[in-house]
Amino acid sequence: MKNNDNIINILIAEDDEDDYTLIIDSIKSSKNNCQVNWVRDGEELLKFLNSTSDHEVGNKKVPDIILLDLNMPKKDGREALEEIKSHSKFKNIPVIVLTTSQAKMDIQKVYDLGANSFIQKPFKYADFSSMMENFFKYWVHTVKLP
């Protein structure tokens, strides 16, 4: 777990602006100390990661956690996940797949590619908020991030 004084850097890869807004609203209401960056497709995601630095001075910092949608344009989440997990600099970043997919094939595939969690996006706002609250309890306050 990061020290509470530290900022958790979250990279959200999500092409749907409404879903992004739900995630951001949940982050704001959680009162966690987060720095959020947003990309809208797999190509932007990989471009963002490749522009990062291990140091906060200068370039963007490597994210602590990636929230990844599967069905994005240009390069989908599966392709992006495969590249992330095959790159020595990024393979230890926890990637949480957050998607509308319920397909068992998708669940198996993303775990085979190295995803750390697979979460189906709830359809109701209250359920989405509850899910994000649980996300923070686990990924920010319970586990130790690399």
Structural class: alpha/beta
Radius of gyration, CA atoms, in whole angstroms: 14 Å
CATH architecture: 3-Layer(aba) Sandwich
So what's the overall shape? globular
CATH topology: Rossmann fold
Q: Averaged pLDDT, please?
A: 86
Strand residue percentage? 15-25%
Task: Order the strands across the largest sheet as they lie in space.
Answer: 2-1-5-6-7
CATH superfamily: Response regulator
Which CATH class is shown? Alpha Beta
List the helices and strands and how they pair.
Elements: E1 8-13, H1 17-30, E2 34-39, H2 42-50, E3 52-53, E4 60-61, E5 65-68, H3 77-86, E6 95-99, H4 104-112, E7 117-120, H5 125-139
Parallel strand pairs: 1-2, 1-5, 3-4, 5-6, 6-7
Helix pairs in contact: 1-5, 2-3
Give a quick precis of the structure:
With 146 residues, this protein is α/β, with parallel strands linked by helices.
Entry keywords:
globular; Rossmann fold; 146 residues; five-stranded parallel sheet; 5 helices; 7 strands; two-stranded parallel ribbon
Protein model, in words:
This protein has 5 helices and 7 strands, in the order βαβαβββαβαβα. It is α/β, with parallel strands linked by helices. The protein has a single domain (8-139), classed as Response regulator (Rossmann fold, 3-Layer(aba) Sandwich). The strands form 2 sheets. It has a 5-stranded parallel sheet, with helices on both faces. A two-stranded parallel sheet has the order 3-4. Helix 1 (17-30) links the parallel strand 1 and strand 2 (34-39). The N and C termini lie close together (9 Å).
